[in-house]
Specification:
There is one protein chain. The chain is α+β, with helices and mostly antiparallel strands and 494 residues long. The chain has helices spanning 20-32, 34-47, 51-75, 142-156, 158-164, 190-198, 203-209, 216-220, 235-266, 306-311, 333-343, 360-384, 394-408, 446-450, 472-488, and strands at residues 14-15, 77-81, 84-89, 95-100, 104-111, 120-127, 135-141, 168-169, 172-173, 183-187, 270-274, 277-282, 287-292, 297-304, 314-320, 326-331, 410-413, 417-423, 427-433, 439-443, 453-459, 464-471. The strands form five sheets. Strands 7-6-5-13-12-11-10 form a seven-stranded antiparallel sheet, with helices on both faces. A six-stranded antiparallel sheet has the order 16-15-14-19-18-17. The protein starts with 13 loop residues before the first strand and ends in a 6-residue tail after the last helix.
Length: 494
């Protein structure tokens, strides 16, 4: 049986909070659609022979809606039996869903604004082989949700606990070491949250501003000064200051909107190391809690953009099986290294990759760009005339960019890990434990084959890592090392 808090026993059937009836009713309304409901009400208003009949029909529909929601609430129970989570649900036909706890990838808790007054949370459970939630429990008490999250995480520790018990002293089996207490690795304050927003690309703002182009003419009427027409001789002088001013306004709006988005999503971002793994809590109006065991982490990605580099912040992404990836922005050097060390499960990994890729990648990219540019120039020479050859100016830009990227790109391989690092203005790095590789591929394009080069791809349960433009011998060595480690390593890969 799973060890649980004495205050909550998930071995007995549990129901959602009574307030879940309200949330279930809202879900039904959303499924039907607000537009469809409005059309139906409009039809009733236009066809109803009397207002009295309408006043009777609407409450009856509301009561029926809440009646169905109440029945769904009463028929929805969940409990843990023999390391399996059993969920019983259904209105007309009763369904029973059994999920082994060792298949549970993550249990996410979300407390939306509407949940807060009642102290409730929404629980989403993800299992192996799915990118979406296996099922969602609309509204449960926080202590029940925490117990379910802890039960799934504790079950993931069982294989490690059994390995720890395989220690003998004087013929006596030693118990596993006591569970570590929870420890907060980082908790972002408002200043750090603002820094995160300002160092990210403000794409959210552009998405909001873009539709305004469709109503540009109407917005022009609101400008307090006159705008010149296209046939105005002063149009050139006006554009000199108007276009930069408009671009500056768009950027400022984008930054403000992105700041609002980050505050709502990442407010009070906290990462905690628990006895069973890692837990990420964040959110202002709607708070989200995601927990996962360390063995579920398949790849570790660290990156630092241009603006992040200026103020010394990093973003760490722990790619776990399923959709519950841990995205942790705003980490300083110590926090990044601590999270990376935990995810590597005691392996030293590769801090600074030292191997380089072939410089032939520069010739390849410049050649391909030149071919595309030539085709574009030939297509544009008729309508644009002598302006068409300006397209060729992209070639030196590509040459400089690819040359710098190839010169700074690094990869490396150790006895139990691989790393791949890209750099241009910012940088990004991937770390991978070889024992978590479940497939490899060495491939060669025609360009690579003629030069004795190849690309090796290491596949995990959550994506893959590719190292390209290296010698064929190196690619085969990476493949052989990964296969050997995966076959001889006794520890679980997930």
């Amino acid at each position: 049986m799973t060890q649980l808090d004495a205050a909550v026993s998930l071995h007995e059937p549990q129901r959602q909070s009574v307030m879940a009836i309200f949330f279930l009713a809202l879900r039904t309304v959303r499924q039907v659609g607000l537009v469809q409901i409005a059309i139906a009400l409009g039809f009733l208003l236009s066809r109803s022979p009397s207002i009295a009949l309408l006043l009777v029909v609407i409450p009856l529909v509301g009561l029926a809606l809440f009646g169905v929601a109440a029945l769904r609430w009463w028929r929805y129970t969940f409990c843990i039996v023999d390391d399996e989570l059993h969920v019983r649900r259904g209105v007309v036909a009763l369904q029973t869903l059994s999920v082994p706890l060792d298949r549970v990838q993550s249990v996410s808790l979300e407390q939306k604004l509407i949940h807060r007054p009642f102290g409730l949370v929404q629980v989403s459970l993800e299992t192996a082989g799915t990118d979406v939630a296996e099922f969602t429990i609309d509204a449960v008490e926080r202590r029940v949700a925490d117990a379910l999250q802890r039960a799934a995480a504790d079950h993931q520790r069982k294989p490690l606990a059994r390995t720890d018990t395989a220690q003998f002293s004087n013929g006596q089996e030693q118990p596993p070491p006591p569970a570590r207490p929870d420890r907060v690795i980082l908790r972002h304050r408002p200043r750090r949250i603002a820094a995160i927003a300002l160092t990210q690309m403000p794409l959210t703002g552009f998405a909001v501003v873009a539709p305004l182009i469709a109503v540009a003419d109407d917005l022009g009427d609101l400008v307090p000064f006159g705008l010149p027409s296209l046939d105005d001789s002063a149009i050139g002088a006006w554009l000199i200051w108007a276009i930069p001013l408009a671009l500056l306004a768009v950027v400022l709006v984008s930054v403000v909107l992105n700041l609002v988005r980050v505050i709502l999503v990442d407010w009070n971002l906290t990462v905690t190391s628990t006895a069973s793994g890692l837990r990420r809590d964040a959110g202002l109006l709607s708070t989200t809690s995601i927990a996962s065991s360390i063995p579920r982490v398949q790849r570790i990605a660290t990156k630092q953009g241009v603006l992040e580099r200026l103020i010394g912040l990093h973003t760490v992404v722990l790619h776990t099986i399923g959709a519950g990836n841990f995205v942790i922005p705003g980490c300083d050097n110590n926090q990044m290294e601590e999270i990376r060390s935990l995810a590597l499960e005691g392996s030293p990994g590769i801090n600074v990759p030292s191997r380089t890729v072939s410089k032939q990648v520069v010739f390849k990219e410049v050649r391909n760009t030149s071919i595309v540019a030539t085709v574009v120039v030939l297509a544009l020479v008729a309508p644009l005339g002598w302006w068409a050859p300006l397209v060729f100016t992209i070639i030196p830009v590509v040459w400089l960019t690819v040359r710098r990227g190839a010169r700074l790109r690094r990869w490396d391989l150790s006895h139990d890990a691989a790393a791949n690092r890209h750099e241009l203005l910012g940088w990004s790095k991937e770390d991978l434990l070889l024992r978590k590789v479940n497939g490899t591929r060495v491939s060669q394009t025609l360009f690579e084959r003629k030069r004795g080069l190849a690309t090796v791809t290491l596949k995990t349960a959550d994506g893959s890592m590719s190292i390209g433009m290296i010698t064929l011998i190196e690619a085969q060595a990476v493949r052989d090392r990964a296969l050997y480690t995966a076959e001889t390593e006794r520890r679980s890969w997930m």
